[in-house]
Design brief:
This protein is mainly beta. Helix content is 8%, strand content 32%. The strands form two sheets. Strands 1-2-9-4-7 form a five-stranded antiparallel sheet, with helices on one face. A four-stranded antiparallel sheet has the order 3-8-5-6, with no helix packed on it. Strand 1 (58-63) and strand 2 form a beta hairpin. It is elongated, with a radius of gyration of 21 Å.
């Protein structure tokens, strides 16, 4: 019996035996969705950070890949996150296609996975609050 082809079971659970660099992988969409769902269920950790500005959406960084956005009534913008959820208020996803413009409402407390950048608008009469993940905090409006 040739035992030279049997893997070395003593290496199980150790770092790469060939000394290759092990890089940190970005979180998967599923991991981002789980993070957003977990944060949405624990508002005591972030609600004190919420700010309201009638001039436009306000982005509040929670960590390097998760942020909160407050949307004044009638305002909208592009979001670069892969995953989002509506916490309070009304938001709609705006899609522009050859056949016209459509607005599809987001449902509160449901995790939404987006294929990439997407436009959101607040059609309601009050502020909306949403959580997003998947890209660095948006620029253009200061974080608090």
């Amino acid at each position: 019996m040739d035992l030279s082809v049997v893997p070395d079971l003593t290496l199980r659970g150790q770092d790469d035996p060939h000394d290759r660099a092990l890089g940190v992988r970005p979180p998967t969409v599923g991991q981002l969705a789980a993070r957003i769902g977990d944060l949405a269920g624990r508002p005591a950790e972030w609600w004190r950070l919420v700010g309201f500005d009638t001039a436009g959406p306000l982005h509040i960084e929670l960590d390097d890949q998760v942020w909160l956005t407050t949307w004044p009534p009638g305002h909208g913008g592009t979001v670069h996150g892969q995953v989002s959820t509506l916490i309070a208020g009304e938001l709609a996803v705006v899609t522009i296609a050859e056949c016209g413009v459509t607005e599809r409402p987001l449902r509160a407390n449901r995790i939404r996975v987006h294929g990439g950048p997407h436009a959101l608008t607040n059609p309601g009469p009050a502020f909306a609050v949403s959580l997003h993940a998947g890209a660095p905090t948006p620029s253009g409006r200061p974080s608090t």
